[in-house]
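Practice problem: predict the structure.
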Amino acid sequence: MGFPQNDPKASYFVHCAVRKGKQLSAADAEMLVEPISDADIDATIKGIDTSKAPGIDGFNSLFFLKAWGIVKADVYEAVKEFFRTGVMLNNASPRCMIKVDLKKAYGSSEWPFLKTMLSELGFPAKFVNWVMQCLYSVSYSILINGCPTKPIPAKKGLRKGDLISPYLFALGMEYLSRCLASLADNPKFSYHPRCKKLDLSHMMFADDSMMFSRADESVVKALFAAFTKFSLASGLEANLHKSEVYLAGVPNHIACITVNSIGVPQGSFPFRYLGVPLTTRKLSFTDCKPLIDRTVARIKSWTSKFLSYAGRLQLVKSVSFCIQLYWSQIFVMPKKVMKEIQRICRCFMWSGTDEGSRKAAVSWEQLCLPKSCGGWNLKDLTVWNKAAVLKHCWALSLKHDRLWANGVDQFVHTGKFRIQKMYKFLHPVGDQVGWKRLICNSHASPKSTFIAWLVVQNRLATKDRLISWQLNIDGTCGLCQLENESLAHLFFSCSYSKDIWRQVLIQLGVSRGVFPWKEEVQIAIKRSRSKKKKACKYSIAFIESVYCIWLQQNSKVFRDHVDPVKAVVNNIMFNVECRCQ
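Answer:
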């Protein structure tokens, strides 16, 4: 049994036990904290085995001995700094990143500034006058008790929704871009260590800006001074509640001084920028939690709507694909995240909730197959993520040696990478199914088509299957009360369903008897290959009949009610005529 940290009991017992034995003498204790001399450091370096590397950079002590005349001053300074402050210097060189969010970006733009920018960029005076007249003519009215007040002329700002506003705002931000770019000529400015080769001092997207520099106080001040110059001219100021500065490779006291000098709060990783998390490490499940929460929220907003399978399918396509689309084109997403999103969508698909435990009628892998192969063309999120991220490899190939790029020509059309083609290449598909035209090309209602899709694969939850799942139920068909219910019996050996399909055939002008299920499916498949209107009506009638019979079976089980055969047939033929229009 141990004591909690900082527990006074622990200190007491340790004190009693240690005081009984020998202790470090005062002279020895004093010697341990004596100032370190250059000779001590020299002796330590020489005492390290020449094959051993003191740091993770891989430079062994032999390197330091050979280059001692060059590096010793830096080593002396680093070692003495540690013994003086008790803080180990970070291996990273000082670096700074400032995230700036503009306060009321559109509403704060000064008109004289925009006019000056247009003129300085070389736009004709007549054109500048036209643009400014569009701004000068803006006025606003306030509704008081339903009546508008006298128009109030605007004095500054851009209107959201105005087609010209984004262009004028971009021209204003061009001034900031040039102010920051001019820092290259400022002797007080030093680039971020990773941005020097690119001459990169900033990145901007609309009103969100990122500025980079070395994390020296004077450098950061010079960087923010350029932004302040832009603010004074344009009227656009930083929103200090959303702006943050990120520092690395500097001691805490230096970081505090730097942050206080510009008045922007210090932030930490990870943080969100342009809707995605930025982190110094590989994306984790926790980083992606907002994505999962959005998926669950979207699902829960529809759980009370009692959607059909077809309705859930459309929502799953929207949720599982569109919500993660933006992230998947930027990051290699953790497999655990993709599996969790697919689990939520699968539960909703078959149970109507995000936490259902109902057994899936068809596997998720089959749902992701093309329709011609028996699926519904959902996206396998993990595979699609790989295909989307590979476009970055293609972008790199356009800038470097292209020899390896010849291997991906099949995914490229006129020099542009196609994610869909890469997805089809990476995602394995099965053989085409014989009933693809009956289901995929049918003009029947989506909810009827989905049930027919389950039926042709024998995935419908008929009573014989429920009994095989160890459910204690009566297996007798509820429609005829004569035989045990199975798929082959329900379609169309049952007297009730057989009578329905016989009358539907008469309505279609088909003079023949009712065959067993497998034969009826083959006839429907054969007719679905024709594009004639009569064949189209037959396919729709077949699918709608299957759906209506299944509805009647459920009505008998849950409400103990079955509609007359004539009413069911009339409903089927009404749907057929509507879908054929």
